[in-house]
Design brief:
358 residues, alpha+beta, six-stranded mixed beta sheet, 11 helices, disordered N terminus, disordered C terminus
């Protein structure tokens, strides 16, 4: 299933210095979280769903850290920065997308950074009472992102900044969807006010669609949204979330011209009201769906597979001279409805359980 997670068309919106209940400040901690030894590292990687194909490379990167004092200092400086940010909300990521890519530690250094942060992230979750199952599925995105990078023909993490959200406690995976805690920052932001009652300062959950998690079925989305409605009031009671928002090529209305009305993608679209202003110009983002569906944006269109309805729709539309666009959508949480009530399902929508192509 195509994902929109690592590359957002707009930066996440949050209050300037909002903070959560968090661990003690780093200077009060006895030491930085140590990297596990080789045998322990293998178990730690398994606990983060790291693919077996990446284990030996990460063990080699761990060895280089031990042998190169300068590389170790470079690594520990960033570890200090990221450890201090655990429990914060809306702070800058503090590192580049390709952090450490040009070092002798190679592509594995960024993954090791999050392995070292994992104990702090889990401790932060435990302090809030968050179940271990949620922590595990959330932090497992490290392994998923390594697998996605390999599928796209590169080693290491494709976007290191993305995972800072998971390990700081800003983003949680609840079933099929991921939910990012945000506070809308400005009245002119696309998610603040357009198409709904939310405005600057309102709390809103930004949705992300992780890859390798099965079909984007209505039933799976209903379960995730229902879990979110129960999860965030319980563990973040000071953050009154009344809506979700999303920015994704999956909301491009042109997809309805190519896919069946009962397809999972079209039914997902129908949950949301548009966020963009009608007079706001759009910039084509043709490479965005190509990257998430095919993994390679450089291949000629004629050489791309046509096995699914989505693949055929993307390629045929581009070959005909069309373009694809990232669109925004807002989904309010119903008020006064009991947990278990499906969220965002239009009246008269096909019943859950149908399994059309994508």
């Amino acid at each position: 299933m195509p994902s929109r997670t690592p590359d957002l068309p707009y930066p996440p919106n949050a209050s300037e210095s909002a903070r959560l209940p968090r661990l003690p400040r780093l200077d009060r901690l006895p030491s930085l979280p140590p990297l596990p030894s080789d045998e322990e590292l293998v178990e730690a990687l398994r606990g983060l769903s790291v693919p077996f194909e990446d284990v030996n490379d990460l063990l080699a990167a761990r060895t280089r850290l031990d042998r190169d004092r300068g590389l170790r200092t470079f690594f520990e400086e960033m570890l200090h920065t990221q450890a201090a940010a655990v429990g914060t909300l809306g702070q800058p990521a503090g590192l580049d997308r390709d952090w450490a890519a040009g070092t002798s530690g190679g592509a594995g250094l960024a993954a090791l950074l999050f392995v070292a942060l994992a104990p702090l992230a889990r401790a932060h979750h435990r302090a809030l009472g968050i179940p271990a199952e949620v922590s595990g599925s959330t932090l497992a995105d490290l392994g998923r992102q390594l697998a996605v990078s390999r599928w796209r023909g590169r080693s290491g993490l494709g976007n290191t900044r993305w995972l800072t959200l998971h390990f700081r406690g800003e983003l949680f995976q609840l079933g099929r969807l991921q939910f990012q805690r945000t506070r809308l920052a400005a009245a002119d932001d696309p998610a603040a006010g357009a198409g709904g009652a939310d405005g600057a300062g309102a709390w809103s959950l930004q949705l992300h669609i992780p890859d390798h998690c099965g079909p984007l079925s209505p039933a799976a989305c209903d379960r995730s949204l229902d879990r979110a409605r129960a999860f965030f009031p319980r563990y973040f009671p000071g953050e009154p979330y009344r809506s979700c928002h999303i920015f994704s090529w999956l909301l491009d209305p042109q997809l309805a011209d190519h896919l069946p009305a009962g397809s999972n993608i079209i039914r997902f679209q129908r949950r949301f009201s548009p966020l963009e202003q009608p007079d706001r110009p759009s910039v084509p983002e043709d490479t965005n769906p190509l990257k998430f569906v095919f993994g390679d944006v450089e291949r000629p269109l004629d050489s791309l597979p046509r096995d699914t309805a989505v693949q055929r729709a993307l390629v045929d539309h581009l070959r005909a001279g069309g373009h694809w666009y990232v669109r925004g959508g807002r989904l309010p949480f119903p008020t006064g409805t009991p947990a278990g009530t499906p969220v965002g399902t239009p009246v008269g929508a096909p019943v859950a359980g149908q399994t059309p192509d994508q």
